[in-house]
Each structure stands twice: as C-alpha cells, then as structure tokens.
Design brief:
Radius of gyration: 14 Å
CATH architecture: 3-Layer(aba) Sandwich
Distance between the termini: 23 Å
CATH superfamily: Response regulator
Helix content: 25-40%
Strand order of the largest sheet: 2-1-3-4
Length: about 150
C-alpha cells in the first residue's frame, strides 16, 4: 500500500498544487500525493495550471481543499510550502515525517502579465528542484530527512 503525502499551503491555490502535480509526476507510482490549505481560497490559480502545463503536467482537475478533510486518513508525511501553513498544521494520525520547504507565493506577483508569468515559472522551477530531489530520495529508498 502506498503511503500518503500531504502538501499544505495557506490558500491551496498555487504552491501546494504545483508541488502536488510535480511530486505526483515524479513519484506517483510510490506514494499518494494530496494537497490542501489551512484557509483554502476555493480555486486553483489559472496561472499555476498554465505553468505546469508548460512542463507536461496537468493539474486542471485539482480543487482547493481544507486540510481538515485529511484528518481521518493515515498521512505519513506532511510538507508545508509556506510559513503560515507550517504554523497552522495539525498532527495527522500516523504522521511520521514533517518537512517545511517555503516558497514565495506567485499569486502576489505584480507587474505585466509577462512579469507575473515569469514569477510563476520561477516558483514552479524552485518547487520542481526540491520535489524532484525528494522524489529521487524516495526512489533510492533513502530515509526521508526531517
């Protein structure tokens, strides 16, 4: 049985969905990946969907969810991708690992459409580096680092 990994953010609209899509693409055969928020905004940001599509990952069917819906599941690893979610994160039944890898929120980017898209791509690429490295560690059977 695959273990559950839950990626948390405050709004569950950008960073957590990008991380979920990237980690699922890199290690979905090994783990079940989910994302949620402490204060979900109720939608997945269209630019997050667009920049993942650019790297061949489709998150268009993702929905913004509250982290409490996972309280009745066995979550082995919780990964927070913003500071607020790290502080608001409850302990989940069966939780073994907890990681905090913070990323800038591209939803707050200002400027022209091209400048905003460049920020979404930068954050996507930062998330991709971290989560693909994490997936490689899982693949090697290395114990997850705290």
């Amino acid at each position: 049985m695959k273990t559950n990994v839950l990626i948390l953010c405050t709004g569950n609209s950008c960073r957590s969905h990008m991380a979920e899509g990237i980690l699922r693409a890199a290690a979905g055969d090994l783990i079940d990946v989910h994302s949620a928020g402490s204060k979900p905004v109720g939608f997945v940001h269209p630019k997050a969907i667009e920049v993942l599509k650019e790297i061949g990952i489709d998150i268009s069917a993702h929905t913004s969810k509250h982290m409490d819906i996972f309280l009745d599941r066995q979550i082995a690893t919780v990964i927070t991708v913003c500071g607020n979610a790290d502080q608001a994160c409850p302990l989940y039944p069966g939780q073994v690992n907890r990681h905090h890898w913070g990323f800038d929120d591209p939803a707050h980017a200002k400027g022209s459409d091209e400048e905003v898209m460049a920020e979404f791509r930068r954050v996507r690429d930062d998330i991709r580096k971290v989560f693909e490295a994490y997936a490689a560690g899982l693949r090697e059977g290395a114990p997850a680092k705290n």
